[in-house]
UniProtKB/TrEMBL annotation:
Gene3D superfamilies attached to this UniProt entry: Spore Coat Polysaccharide Biosynthesis Protein SpsA, Chain A
E.C. numbers: 2.4.-.-
Entry keywords, A to Z: Glycosyltransferase, Membrane, Transferase, Transmembrane, Transmembrane helix
Species this protein is from: Hyphobacterium vulgare
Protein name from the UniProt record: Glycosyltransferase
Amino acid sequence: MAEGRISVVMVTWRTGPHLAEAVEAVLAAPDVDEFILVNHDNPPDVMAALETRAGENAKMTLIDTGANLGFSKGCNIGAKVATGDFLFFLNPDAVLPAGVARQMAETGETAHRPWIVGARLLDKNGKEQRGARRGLLTPWTAMVGFLGLHRLEPVFGRAFHDIHRERDPVPLGPIRIEVTSGAALMMRRDDFDALGGFDEGYFLHVEDIDLCRRVVEARGHVLFEPRAELLHYGSTSEASLFRVEWNKAHGFRRYFWKFYDRFPQRVLTLMAIPVIYGLVVARSVYIWLRGWIDGWYRRIRKLDA
């Protein structure tokens, strides 16, 4: 059994109705020794409820930053306060079952350090979500994913392989991967500190890909632990879809500029970045328009009824 204390670090900004459920699940988990919740400007009633809960439970420490400082910075703030041997970064819309945190720590201790262990994220219907097991993100694989070019793999081969693996059979035990999701990610705290934590140049999205990349470059292991399953609602914050997607595009730009700075990769980066920004804008408009049409159609049907 893995020795050491486990600290859960959770960053929240106007998460919505599932925050209370996520908080209670962490507090109820017997394998979690400490809970650091970093509050980025939640509404007053939510903040009051969090303060009350922190006052009732010695396991919970509440940090109020007073502003939305971004996910990376929030995680780093929480990690500096945490005292555990293992840091478990958990989204505020994820529901942690008992035993999952300890399972991830035990799996990690079998790997080459520095290590990261990611959980298997399930939606409310029990279907595995995208992102928890991925291949290496490059300018080319990003283009394949954004443009749907993975459909060409049967004709042109592995060069067009989709880096997202959630449609693959679920492995029986942990497997090595290139990237896992920051929605439920564990590291040893000394390894996290040695790598400099999350890169605060990312505001929201891609910071987890960056951290996984640095672990692999340090000759460590990134593992996907399929036995560590948890419910992740996803997309529950009040942030506009366009703002979220725009931050994601900024994250991709920073990542590619950081890791692909030599010829010929730089050329492909210069080609990929405007495509990504354009597709992000198009996707946001499409989702908004689809939602507006669906809402309009429901109102019409209600009137007809």
